[in-house]
Structure formats: structure tokens, C-alpha cells
Amino acid sequence: MAENPSPECPDCGNSFPLRTTNGLCQKCCKLKDHKHGTADYEDIEEQPQCVMCGLTRRNNMHKIGQSYTCGSETCVHELKEDGVGPQGELYSHCSFSALMLNFGIR
Ligand SMILES: [Zn+2]
Ligand SMILES: [Zn+2]
């Protein structure tokens, strides 16, 4: 089995710079167990996901600007450090390439 060191989830294509696992992000892992289009699937799909580590859960997520984090010190710190102001528009999905540059990951 090839280890994939990329923070990018091969399924949803989002990158989570702080996640500690390879392969699918947590959301995609959860989605994998459910059929597309079912209530369970949609429920998971709607759960906020930490933009830094990929953790996803229904409650207790912290919103910073437009972005959710799991609230762990590291994730919150990194998100704030990276200059997401109150407007928080940096972290829409299409801005992840900018994020990756900041982290020096290519
Ligand atoms: Zn994913
Ligand atoms: Zn996190």
C-alpha cells in the first residue's frame, strides 16, 4: 500500500493542512458507509467540517469567518494566524490553493 503524504482528500478534493491521516478525510470516510441520496448521507454531508484537520461532526464546531474548525487549539490558531479576518472569505473552497502555498506544501 502506497502511503499518500498529501493533505488532499482524494474523494472530495479538499485539502486539510493539519490532518494526521492519509487518504479520505473524515467526512468522506463517514459518507462511504452510506448510500448517496439517503437521509443519513445528506445528514453527514451537511455537517460542518474543520477546514484544517478535516474533522466533521454535527455540533460543537467553531465558526471563524466563513470557516468551521473543530475548535482544537492548533486548528483555531492556524486558521487565525493565516489571516482570516472577520470577513473570513479566504477559506472558501476555491481558495485552498492559496492556503497550501502559505503552508509551503505543493
Ligand atoms: Zn474528503
Ligand atoms: Zn480541526
Q: Which secondary structure elements does this structure contain, and how are they paired or packed?
A:
Layout lengths: L25 H7 L6 H8 L15 E3 L2 E3 L3 H9 L14 H7 L4
Antiparallel strand pairs: 1-2
Keywords: Kinase, Transferase
Protein name: Alpha-type protein kinase domain-containing protein
GO molecular function, one term: kinase activity
Unreliable stretches: 85-98
Structural class: mainly alpha
**How many structural domains?**
1
What is the helix/strand order? HHEEHH
Biggest sheet descriptor: 2 strands, antiparallel
DSSP strand tally: 2
* Residue share in helix: 25-40%
Query: Ligands bound here?
Result: zinc ion
Mean model confidence by pLDDT: 81
User: DSSP strand (E) fraction?
Assistant: 5-15%
What integer value in Å does the Rg equal?
14 Å
Provide a count of the helices: 4
Lateral arrangement of strands in the main beta sheet: 1-2
Query: What distance separates the N and C termini?
Result: 22 Å
Please tell me what the overall shape is.
globular
Keywords: Kinase, Transferase
Protein name: Alpha-type protein kinase domain-containing protein
GO molecular function, one term: kinase activity
